[in-house]
Amino acid sequence: MTVTSRNADLVGGRPVVPSRGVLRPLGLGEVRVTGGFWAVRQRVNGGATLAHARSWMDKLGWTGNFTSADGSTGPHDRRGREFADSEVYKLVEAMAWEVGRSPGRGLDDEIAELTATIAAEQSPDGYVNTAFGGPGQPSRYSDLATGHELYCTGHLLQAAVARTRTGGAGPLLDVARKAADHVCDTFGPDGVPGICGHPEIELALVELARVTGEQRYLDQAALFVERRGHRTLPPHHFGWSYYSDDIPVRSATVLRGHSVRSLYLACGAVDVAVETGDDELLTAVATQFDSTLARRTYLTGGMGSRHADEAFGEDFVLPADRAYSETCAGIAAIMLAWRLLLATGDGRYGDIVERILYNVVATAISDDGKSFFYANTLHQRTRTTAVPDDEAQLGFGGGPRAPWFEVSCCLPNIARLLAGLSTYFVTADDDGLRVHQYADTEVDTRLVDGRQVGLRVSTHYPDDGVVTVQVTRTDGGPWSITLRVPEWATGAVLVTATGRTRVPTGDVVVLRDFAVGEEIRLELPMRPRFTRPDSRIDAIRGCVAVERGPIVYCAEESGGNPAHLDALRVRTSADPVDEVGGVAVRARFDVPDDARWPYGVARPSPGAAPVAPLRLIPYHRWARNGPATMRVWLPST
Ligand SMILES: [Zn+2]
What we know:
Radius of gyration: 25 Å
Number of helices: 12
Distance between the termini: 45 Å
Helix content: 25-40%
Low-confidence stretches: 1-11
Bound molecules: zinc ion
Largest sheet: 10 strands, antiparallel
């Protein structure tokens, strides 16, 4: 795998700015989502989720853990888990991207206020963490395995990068540089040979290096990546794989252990590989991700099937009713796919970004943006319970959407992703523009050769498969528009000035001397379809799922469906059909016999119940009308 070198400017509202790669990301000022599915969610995110997260962090004392800017509050009983600082940083990062997306909403003042209190907490030598090093607290870096200190610093750095790219250099960047310098001084080649139990600092140091041009930050990130996998962290009761310290990064063949840790590390490794020209490392991580997609990923794009350690299971261990699929793991997988897409230009990574967006991210967040799933099961056997608006859920893991969890990593993660989401939709390559995700979008940018170009994408996607791309600006001469034809879109049609053409899945390129106002249209087939699993996924063998476009569907016990979804059998002899608000299939609803021993020799099938419609809704809509049972995978006759 090779990538080409390219200079990139270091501002402009882009989450990831590699100095080389096949694709150049566009900034929040160059690509805007103006309407549709994601615009609604971005508005809710900016209008409600950010304030919701801030109020919970204030109420629980997580923001109050930092010394106040005027010094009026000093050390006190610290609140929250050891990584609570990171949630404050992620919120600041989300606010910074939101400033870039929608300037003038008063968030600048809030960022300045939080920056002042973080700066007040920072020691003169650059160290900043509210859980370690204070009076009565464990000493600094005394628990690298579980203390999350470098993890927290990583999120501080990412917040500063976001702030710099949307608001310019300022005091938060100063705090981040001092913190990063302290990390380099402490853990550099001549320092403590340690790593953090939770990767994150690696990708953050690379991005800070991109913003500042500081080589030592990149060197330190590379050092952290190379140090991992040599079992230098203490033995963990879930094994060294829990924190990816079992096998060196460039030797591993698949992602394993704690899903979020593994994916964040992979992101950092790609960043290091791209910046250092280490194509061996880049290929190693791409191979690991491909294997993970092939053997360890749910239909939704979710990752992680073990609740106890929030980890990937072995190959094909993907039980629907024990799906963990942490929201953060989905977001981390988008981050990894995005980095690999930029580096390689391989459009398949756009497919998995889309799958996760519609089926993990959109599922996790409530319509009002004020509650969320931490885990995203694919089969809810017993009804979820209603959660009071003012009650944080203990711990983490499964259960209904809740306003807050004791471990609330996922909500600020959703917030930062949604605020900057438009930048994931369109990129530039050496020849023109590439549209990866379909929404009402306005694009205005320059090509590599300096020509100004613009696009307007209009669509009702994913309700409808017609995507119209109109050229709104061109300086003349040929350039290309590349559209992603998703892997499910067999039979897609491209309509241009020269006529209609069936196009294969993958990337379709239109290279022309475009005129302003010229349109091209992509027609994606949106018939609902049955999807069958690989037979090696034993837990769902004999089942089918229904998908329509990028959307995974599910059966819920409402809308005329019976409550006992576990005994249904779907008929696949007739295709699923569209109906208002969903899709319908035909199924038998057997009545389970709960009194009997559930095993037997050639146990006869239950009595022949009549065939009736089974109504399915988009998986991301489940449990939005109160407690519900639900299933994605449907036993078939
Ligand atoms: Zn999370």
